[in-house]
Write the structure tokens for this entry.
Amino acid sequence: MRIGILTSGGDCPGINATIRGVCKTAIHHYGMEVTGIRNGFQGLLTKEVEQFDEKSISGLLTLGGTVLGTSREKPFRRGGLMDGVDKPSLIMQNVKELGLDCVVCIGGNGTLQTAARFAEMGMNIVFVPKTIDNDVYGTDKSFGFDTAVSIATDAIDRLHCTASSHRRVMVIEVMGHKAGWIALYAGMAGGSDIILLPEIPYSIHNVGDVIIERLKHGKPYAIVVVAEGIPTDGRKRAGEYVAQEIEYETGIETRETVLGYIQRGGSPTPSDRNLATRMGGHVTELIANGQFGRMVALRGDDIVSVPVAEVAGKLRLVTPQHDLVVQGKRMGVCFG
Ligand code: F6P
């Protein structure tokens, strides 16, 4: 059996560990051949591939990014027709010509929707969720998230120094357009005073009042963590907007820091390496059993699988009932 493997969407720590998990299990345990597809679905349009062997996968466990390259190529965009080319049909044909019996897609929400469309067209697809945002529906966790939270928490810890030394408000913008998981987990782990998420409406006047209350209680500084996707005036980035409004509301010197792509880079944490490794192994087992059209998922401490058609197009979001939100509120953390 020959399997193809591609990585699509934003890079994220743990992708290479997954590639390694798939390759080692496929080659050692099942005697399959593994073909790497370059730059996501783009590589299936251009047939840019490389053969994986034992040598080419060494050193992958700890490596950030993706050795296969990635792209945000969406073959079904604009009805799939671009410059007279029917991209989905061309990809189906190329998969056949490359002799691939199955394609392993490692991706986030966008890739999951693309994978579900190809599964509908009859392609043998299996899916591994990856995202630092942790917003793929159907899995308790995606690898990349733990690493991003650990990077963001370290940044918050460091920003505490300037906040308290200069008696400033420090606003830290983290990633998360629709889901505020990184803001919630890093914000709580970093002992933040205010955490703003896309899922929970906030009032900037209330945020200002909370900071002034702290000042009255002898704490002339504050740490504010905001997810990039919170509503703003529509012109500024979330961090810049919140920082300017806080300074206006409170009169306290306020600075913002945007963590950006730093959250996606570097070596995965041990927890992400192990999750990626397990998912890589389990997805290969799905292929061996002929269970196509499925996504591997973490449920509790087990790896299970769910049909891609059931989870594609849905988002895993923070709810106000989440225990970290509830406990945070009880301890005086402001969520808006
Ligand atoms: O991986 C998800 C994510 O990190 C989002 O939180 C972020 O907004 C987005 O990717 C940006 O990625 P890019 O600029 O590569 O499209």
The pocket of 6-O-phosphono-beta-D-fructofuranose is lined by residues 10, 108, 131-133, 175-177, 228, 264 (CB under 6 Å).
